[in-house]
Specification:
The chain has ten helices and five strands; from the N terminus they run E-H-H-E-H-E-H-E-H-H-H-E-H-H-H. It is of the alpha/beta class. The protein has two domains: 142 residues, D-Maltodextrin-Binding Protein, domain 2; 60 residues, no CATH class. The chain has a five-stranded parallel beta sheet with strand order 3-2-4-1-5. Helix 3 links the parallel strand 2 and strand 3. About 5% of the residues have low confidence.
């Protein structure tokens, strides 16, 4: 019976580049890993994400991703585990009871594998924030999963951050904004000028956000700049 590792995503990049880099240097063909990923209807394909493309390029691996909608995730995962049809990795925090499948040997214990030599990035984070590893530990003292830790900087509201199109900024001959006033001028230029250089100065949307999941999304930038903490 094969064993699996249960991950809560970015942990794949937290794990060291050392062993995977060594594999990449010696393997002629990419090494394939199967992966179940929970998805929503509005999500873009996981295979198109920067994260997976970056890992595949750096480490000469290929992720064979099966996307499963969240509405049937628990059911599909349950069937897969019951029929030995599970993948190498699960990309989600739900549907797999590690306290059940870990002791059975289906999910491997990562505790002894997380060392300074094999996973220096993750190891360093655990040394700095031991609570992050404690949160991933099972009741039996083993670690069957790797949870992310998004409070490494208490002054940063990591759940909602803004990104600016620096290509548009360069197209308009402007500098990246460092103050709210400068951000206003940049957004105003995006709205009024041909930032994407397609000949139409009226088709750019200078700023966007969603209130569906985060009611503060469009307010995060100015409010945090003024010292408000929204988390």
């Amino acid at each position: 019976m094969k064993k699996i590792v249960f991950l809560l995503l970015a942990a794949l990049l937290l794990c060291s580049a050392l062993p995977l880099a060594a594999i990449a240097e010696t393997a002629e063909e990419p090494i394939h890993f199967s992966l179940f990923a929970k998805t929503e209807v509005s999500d873009s394909p996981w295979a198109d994400s920067y994260l997976f493309k970056k890992m595949e390029k750096l480490f000469n691996v290929k992720f064979d991703i099966t996307e499963i909608n969240s509405t049937v995730w628990n059911e599909k995962v349950g069937v897969a585990l019951a029929t030995d049809g599970y993948p190498d990795f699960f990309l989600s925090s739900g549907g797999v009871d590690v306290s059940v499948y870990g002791p059975q040997g289906i999910i491997i214990d990562l505790k002894d594998l997380i060392t300074e030599e094999t996973m220096p990035n993750l190891y360093a984070m655990y040394q700095k924030y031991p609570v992050a590893q404690k949160a991933s530990m099972s009741y039996d003292g083993h670690q069957y999963c790797i949870y992310g830790y998004d409070r490494t900087n208490t002054r940063e509201y990591l759940q909602s951050r803004f990104f600016v199109n620096t290509q548009w900024i360069r197209n308009l001959g402007m500098e990246e904004p460092a103050t709210l006033d400068e951000m206003y001028e940049v957004l105003k230029a995006f709205k009024e000028k041909d930032a994407d250089l397609n000949g139409d100065p009226g088709n750019e949307i200078p700023m966007g956000g969603s209130f569906e999941y985060d009611p503060y999304s469009l307010l995060t930038l100015p409010l945090t700049a003024y010292g408000y903490r929204l988390a």
